[in-house]
Design a protein that fits this description.
Elements lengths: L19 H10 L7 H14 L9 E5 L2 E6 L1 H10 L2 E4 L3 E4 L7 E12 L2 E10 L15 H4 L1 H17 L1 H4 L2 E3 L18 H5 L22
Parallel strand pairs: 2-7
Antiparallel strand pairs: 1-2, 3-5, 4-5, 5-6
Helix pairs in contact: 3-5
Length: 219
């Protein structure tokens, strides 16, 4: 039986390890986000911990409601999980309020990981109304209209990964968890990496929902 070859992935550099040219490249890759040097340093530190490279846009930072947020795609969550003991991801389970089952009302996904005592399971549940994007006319927008199951499943799986792999993915969000129209471009002093990635694994309230009354539209 032939063993699969492990292809080593170069570790992302810390901001302090980058040359001036690499720092300039990073700022060009993240153009439009208005991050300051401290926030770029935080982004690179989270990149080192997760193994996701900001220079390759595997991970990036934005300012949302005055708060610095680190984001990746669902493939980034899966890549980190595979490197750190992923034991499987269950197929999404949907609830519906209509008999035709066109739009899900909720989704549950369980992510499994290997722990010291064996397999551990973490189940996340998300409600469609708390993530879907609606236009001013009350109609669903973009992929939330054309692929509602896929979009809600991505948000739910991302939450399950944060619950299962908090050591690496706590404080990192899937880009579709946030309404793009509410991403504001303003400077906000960063705190520390530990505060950024050490959010509780068992609190779904870590997700900032679309119907948050404190949300402000982008200028």
């Amino acid at each position: 039986m032939t063993e699969a070859l492990a292809i080593p992935t170069p570790a992302p550099l810390a901001y302090s390890e980058m040359s001036d040219e690499q720092r300039l490249m990073l700022k060009q890759v993240c153009a439009g986000t208005n991050l300051n040097d401290q926030q770029f340093a935080l982004l690179c530190e989270v990149g080192k911990r997760t193994g996701l490279d900001p220079l390759r846009r595997q991970i990036y930072g934005l300012i949302f409601q005055g708060r610095f947020i680190v984001m990746t795609g669902i493939d980034g969550f899966r890549a980190v999980a595979r490197r750190n003991g992923l034991a499987g991801i269950d197929a999404p389970r949907f609830d519906y309020v209509d008999e035709q089952k066109r739009i899900p009302s909720a989704c549950e996904i369980t992510v499994h990981r290997w722990g010291r005592g064996g397999k551990e399971s973490y189940t996340a549940r998300c409600l469609f109304r708390e993530f879907a994007r609606f236009g001013r006319d009350g109609k669903l927008m973009g992929p939330w209209q054309t692929s509602p199951h896929h979009m809600l499943a991505k948000c739910t799986e991302a939450l399950a990964h944060r619950m299962a792999f908090t050591e690496w993915m706590g404080g990192v969000y899937e880009r579709d968890e946030f309404p793009r129209e509410h991403v504001v471009r303003q400077q906000q002093p960063a705190t520390t990496v530990d505060e950024l990635i050490s959010e509780p694994a068992d609190e779904p309230a870590e997700v900032i929902y679309d119907d948050d009354p404190t949300a402000k539209d982008a200028p």
